[in-house]
TrEMBL record:
Key word Metal-binding present: no
Taxonomic lineage of the native organism: Bacteria, Bacillati, Actinomycetota, Actinomycetes, Geodermatophilales
Keywords for this protein: DNA-binding, Transcription, Transcription regulation
InterPro entries found in the cross-reference section: HTH_LacI (IPR000843), LacI/GalR-like_sensor (IPR046335), Lambda_DNA-bd_dom_sf (IPR010982), Peripla_BP_I (IPR028082)
Molecular function terms, GO-annotated: DNA-binding transcription factor activity; transcription cis-regulatory region binding
A Pfam match: LacI
UniProt organism field: Modestobacter marinus
All residue ranges annotated as the HTH lacI-type domain in the record: 4-60
Gene3D superfamilies: 3.40.50.2300, lambda repressor-like DNA-binding domains
UniProt key word Transcription regulation: yes
Protein name: DNA-binding LacI/PurR family transcriptional regulator
Length: 323
């Protein structure tokens, strides 16, 4: 079906295309009667007219896009939900989201689409950030660390600290760490493991016994045997997927959870709620993250100071049967 154009609206309402343009773009100073204005708006509604994004960009020199730049990370459930929620939040402000994965050059894209704002999920290089600012683009970034320069930061080390704290509080003194086999997750994994190390050191416990675990029972069973040989009674896993693999590995070794090995994951995925036993985990509130980013984008576009984010609202320990 062909796209409805402003010419179609002009024919439907019996006015010129110039008048349609003035009405639909809310141009001030044009001498247009209220009757004509209502007739044009009614015709546009009947025909289902929506203005072309390209045309709006040509008129204003700026698109209605917010460009979200992801590093070379696999998109897991939390990040996927953050992007969905951010898209919804910004749509309420008449802004659209375009997601760019860091595996291809950024400069070519932002010059082509001319976004109003660019949000980096890690810090931009100085050259890229300066070039975008010179072009009049608002540049914002989030962080995986405590960083006052970021519009929002969820320190991933706190995730590991929450896991280790819960395990230590429930009587475990020798902990294991189940890391991901996927190297592209290192940005998160290193920080979460640092948090486990920090909490163990704070309590005078030995450093965690670290093993990477593929998402299969054989790899997990090898890790479980290594942990048991080292006296480990509880495991902090990189995320719920890895934690579920550990559960399978424990079963393959003829052991039980939490009787022989307690397990804590991260992300609170639905499968973890349905596992046997149900998975204790650290939930990350994606809606809070998205709302904070959207609010910071709106403030930047309005020229207002960004609100102070509250990352403490994001992380929450969910205790179930596995630990």
């Amino acid at each position: 079906m062909p796209r409805v154009t402003s010419a179609d609206v002009a024919r439907e309402s019996g006015v010129s295309r110039t008048t349609v343009s003035y009405v639909l773009n809310d141009k001030h100073g044009a001498m247009i009667s209220e009757d004509t204005r209502q007739r044009v708006q009614a015709a546009a509604a009947r025909l289902g007219y929506s203005p072309s994004a390209a045309a709006r960009t040509l008129r204003s020199g700026r698109s209605d896009l917010v460009l979200c730049v992801l590093p070379n990370w696999p998109v897991g459930p939390v990040l996927d939900t953050v992007l969905d929620e951010l898209t919804r939040e910004l749509a309420e402000r008449q802004l659209s989201v375009l997601v760019h994965h860091g595996r291809s050059p950024l400069a070519e894209l932002w010059r082509a689409v001319t976004p109003r704002a660019v949000v980096g999920f890690t810090e931009f290089g100085a050259e890229d950030a300066d070039a975008m600012r010179r072009a009049g683009i608002q540049v914002l970034s989030t962080s995986l660390d405590d960083d006052p320069r970021a519009v929002f930061a969820v320190a991933q080390s706190r995730v590991g600290q929450l896991q280790a704290r819960h395990l230590a509080d429930t009587g475990h003194t020798r902990l294991g760490w189940a890391g991901p086999a996927e190297p592209r997750l290192a940005d998160f994994a290193v920080r979460r493991l640092t948090g486990v190390h920090t909490e163990c050191a704070r309590r005078g416990l030995a450093a965690p016994v670290v093993r990477d675990v593929d998402l299969d029972a054989d790899s997990a069973a090898d890790a479980v045997r290594a942990w048991r040989s080292a006296g480990v009674t509880a495991v902090a896993a990189y995320n719920d997927e890895v934690a579920l693999a550990v559960l399978a590995g424990v079963r393959a070794c003829g052991l039980s959870v939490p009787g022989d090995v307690a397990v804590v994951g991260v992300d609170d995925v639905p499968a973890g709620r349905l596992s046997d036993p149900a998975l204790t985990t650290v939930a990350q509130d994606a809606a809070v993250q998205a709302r904070a980013i959207a609010t910071a984008v709106a403030a930047a576009l309005d020229g207002s100071p960004p609100p102070a984010p509250d990352p403490a609202e994001v992380l929450r320990l969910v205790v179930r049967d596995s630990a």
